[in-house]
């Protein structure tokens, strides 16, 4: 039995426009019954992998291959197999059978599929072969704890196949709560054209509101199966430890072994991304981060396995030096196991990237960013309300020095493209952390993305998403690595120059954890945007809050007639929203009129907009975290055939 300590959730009532929900996409090891690949392949045509894991009533059941039969016979739960009450016999024995006979003859040929599991009185058997006459059965005798025994002629052969598959279904359903089943059903993953295999709970989004709920379905990394690479599990533990309250997990397979080859890792990395067949309106094409298409309440996206999947096989750590024996002060009277557990249970090093690894990592991050940013073109406007939070990988040389080319990832040139990550939709986190749960990871170092997402979630719930998260005190974090230079942890005393060559400390470009007189803290809450106007994480989240609130409020107006009356109602809705934000100190201004302006009239739309059913409102405001005036254009489709549209586009005021 394991005991899990969790910080109490913030005492904040959930709201429709909450900006604290996260989604973790990566690798986690499911618990419960694990069907081997060969067994899954044999069961899939029978419909058994689809919830509720029952035999498809119309499926023809072939005889089990020897390897599949052997797997079934190894399962302890099969010991509960009994003939179903009131079952009719599939046939009767033509002649008496001895206890050692493996071929028995039926009196009448079978008229249907042979039973896979059957009972001869108190003996249970499996059928492995049926001859052409459909009368001679080859059996495995005395299975599931029963004893092989002689049987007289005319002994009935009772079909137990349904009972055996009912036991299998019970095992596969064991860990699924009714709430989770209801969620998957409403999402269309249980039945219908988009139903998916759910025996492994892979490639479907699963909602969790505590780490304890996660560990009912997935390994927390501390089991004997753990290899030090359970990064999703540890990220989720840290998310809830920091005060996060709701997160989705999209599991795409088991965590990799440290020595997994680079091609195998690259193949797994691609499953985390949306894939080339992705279509916004077709759930059958949603994989990995593509599931964000339906997760309209998500604000933060994290892929904790990215550094591991982009790294070469790790180096082997040298043996840890043993401390000198301490002098005996007193001796305990306990006779139990006094073994001291090593904080670093693995001999392999944490993932570290070289030039090739950073290039792969940059490509993967840019791929996800492009998916989020391009959501408007696919009418997936909620994607632009999300922030990708990514741990900056450790450098391969084992020091705090990042690659010389690192600034190129974040400088203005190239915008969101391969090799450049200068985007307000990205927050990078560094350095790596030592937490109360990171001892199960390689070297005991945890990527900081889970902790940062948890801090941002708690900040949104307790202080407002539009406030900087640097004032939120991290929980369960007691060390970090590598140590950074004073230059990288101090905010610049002079204004930054936004070009492709001017150096900048990490604290200005990365959400950095570091040491302070008060302990370990988040030193900066910044995006990767290469300008002051949108670099603050608080400003990006404020824009997200405005865009999401406007998108949700716009649903009430989407079918209205596009004219002055509708324009006035939309403007009034947005004024109420902005006034509430000003009252919460999210906007800078002595009065509401000083803090923001809202326009929705003939001056914000062209005749072409009106002819095509577009309603456009313009909101200008000064965020409390910046002195610049920002402008958001909110476009709401108004013809009855369209869906509601809200697009948030940042424009710097001249």
Beta-strand segment tally: 24
Helical content stands at 25-40%
Chain oligomer state: single chain
Structural class comes to: alpha/beta
- List the domain count as a whole number: 3
Task: Describe the overall structure.
The protein is an alpha/beta fold and 654 residues long. It folds into 3 domains: 22-28 and 202-318 and 347-530, Rossmann fold (3-Layer(aba) Sandwich); 37-171, no CATH class; 554-652, Dihydrodipicolinate Reductase, domain 2 (2-Layer Sandwich), CATH 3.30.360.90. Helices cover 25% and strands 16% of the residues. Helix 6 packs parallel to helix 11 and helix 15 (537-554) packs antiparallel against helix 16.
Can you tag this structure with a few keywords?
single chain; 654 residues; alpha/beta; Rossmann fold; Dihydrodipicolinate Reductase, domain 2; 3 domains; 8-stranded mixed sheet; 25% helix; elongated; disordered N terminus
Structure summary:
The protein is α/β, with parallel strands linked by helices. The chain has 3 domains: 22-28 and 202-318 and 347-530, Rossmann fold, CATH 3.40.50.11780; 37-171, no CATH class; 554-652, 2-Layer Sandwich (Dihydrodipicolinate Reductase, domain 2), CATH 3.30.360.
How do the strands and helices of this protein lay out in sequence?
Blueprint: E1 22-26, H1 37-43, H2 66-73, E2 89-92, E3 103-105, E4 117-120, E5 123-130, E6 136-140, E7 156-159, H3 161-173, H4 178-186, E8 205-208, H5 211-214, H6 231-241, E9 247-251, H7 262-272, E10 300-302, H8 306-310, E11 352-353, H9 355-373, E12 387-391, E13 394-395, H10 406-410, E14 416-417, E15 420-421, E16 426-430, E17 432-435, H11 449-462, E18 477-481, H12 486-489, H13 506-509, E19 511-516, E20 519-522, H14 532-535, H15 537-554, H16 564-583, H17 592-595, E21 596-599, H18 607-611, E22 614-622, E23 629-637, E24 650-652
Parallel strand pairs: 1-9, 1-10, 10-12, 11-13, 12-16, 16-19
Antiparallel strand pairs: 2-7, 3-6, 4-5, 4-7, 5-6, 8-9, 14-15, 17-18, 19-20, 21-22, 22-23, 23-24
């Amino acid at each position: 039995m394991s005991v899990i300590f969790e910080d109490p959730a913030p005492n904040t009532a959930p709201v429709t426009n909450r900006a604290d929900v996260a989604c973790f996409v990566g690798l986690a090891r499911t618990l419960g019954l694990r069907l081997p690949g060969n067994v899954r392949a044999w069961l899939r045509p029978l419909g058994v992998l689809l919830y509720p894991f029952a035999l498809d009533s119309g499926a023809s059941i072939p005889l089990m291959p020897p390897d599949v039969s052997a797997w079934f016979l190894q399962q302890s739960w099969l010991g509960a197999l009994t003939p179903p009450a009131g079952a009719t016999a599939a046939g009767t024995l033509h002649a008496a059978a001895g206890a050692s006979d493996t071929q028995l003859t039926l009196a009448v040929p079978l008229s249907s599929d042979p039973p896979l599991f059957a009972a001869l009185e108190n003996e249970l058997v499996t059928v492995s072969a049926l001859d052409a006459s459909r009368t001679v059965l080859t059996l495995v005798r005395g299975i599931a704890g029963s004893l092989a025994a002689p049987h007289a002629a005319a002994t009935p052969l009772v079909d137990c196949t349904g009972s055996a598959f009912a036991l299998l279904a019970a095992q596969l359903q064991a860990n699924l709560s009714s709430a989770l089943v209801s969620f998957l059903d409403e999402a269309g993953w249980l039945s219908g054209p988009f139903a998916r295999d759910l025996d492994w709970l892979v490639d479907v989004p699963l909602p969790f509101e505590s780490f304890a709920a996660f560990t009912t379905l997935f390994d927390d990394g501390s089991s004997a199966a753990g290899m030090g690479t359970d990064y999703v599990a540890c990220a989720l533990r840290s998310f809830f430890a920091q005060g996060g309250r709701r997160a989705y997990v999209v599991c795409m397979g088991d965590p990799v072994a440290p020595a997994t080859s680079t091609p195998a890792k690259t193949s797994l990395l691609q499953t985390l991304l949306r894939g080339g067949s992705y279509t916004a309106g077709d759930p059958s094409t949603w994989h990995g981060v593509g599931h964000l298409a339906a997760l309209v309440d998500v604000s933060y996206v994290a892929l904790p396995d990215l550094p591991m999947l982009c790294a070469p096989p790790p180096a082997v750590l040298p043996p840890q030096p043993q401390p000198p024996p301490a002098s005996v002060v007193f001796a305990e009277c306990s006779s139990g196991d006094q073994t001291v557990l090593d904080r670093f249970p693995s001999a392999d090093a944490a993932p570290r990237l070289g030039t090739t690894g950073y290039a792969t990592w940059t490509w993967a991050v840019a791929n996800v960013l492009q998916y989020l940013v391009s959501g408007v073109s696919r009418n997936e406007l909620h994607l632009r309300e999300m922030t990708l939070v990514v741990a900056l990988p450790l450098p391969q040389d084992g020091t705090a020095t990042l690659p010389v080319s690192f600034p190129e990832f974040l400088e203005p040139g190239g915008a969101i493209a391969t090799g450049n990550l200068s985007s307000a939709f990205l927050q990078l986190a560094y350095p790596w952390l030592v937490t109360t749960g990171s001892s199960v990871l390689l070297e005991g170092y945890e990527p900081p993305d889970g902790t940062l997402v948890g801090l941002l979630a708690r900040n949104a719930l307790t202080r407002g998403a539009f406030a900087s998260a640097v004032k939120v005190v991290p929980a369960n974090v007691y060390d970090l690595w590598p140590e950074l230079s004073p230059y990288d942890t101090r905010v610049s005393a002079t204004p930054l120059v936004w070009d492709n060559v001017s150096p900048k400390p990490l604290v200005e470009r990365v959400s950095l954890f570091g040491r302070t007189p008060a302990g370990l803290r988040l030193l900066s809450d910044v995006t990767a945007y290469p300008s002051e106007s949108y670099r603050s994480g608080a400003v990006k989240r404020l824009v997200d809050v405005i865009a999401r609130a406007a998108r949700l409020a716009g649903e009430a107006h989407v079918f209205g007639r596009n004219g002055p009356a509708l324009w006035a109602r939309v403007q009034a809705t947005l004024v109420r929203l902005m006034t509430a934000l000003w009252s919460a100190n999210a906007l800078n201004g002595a009065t509401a009129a000083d803090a923001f302006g809202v326009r929705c009239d003939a001056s914000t739309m062209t005749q072409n907009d009106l002819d095509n059913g577009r309603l456009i409102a313009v909101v200008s405001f000064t965020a409390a975290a910046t002195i610049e005036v920002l402008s958001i254009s909110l476009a709401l489709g108004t013809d009855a055939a369209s869906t509601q549209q809200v697009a948030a586009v940042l424009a710097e005021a001249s």
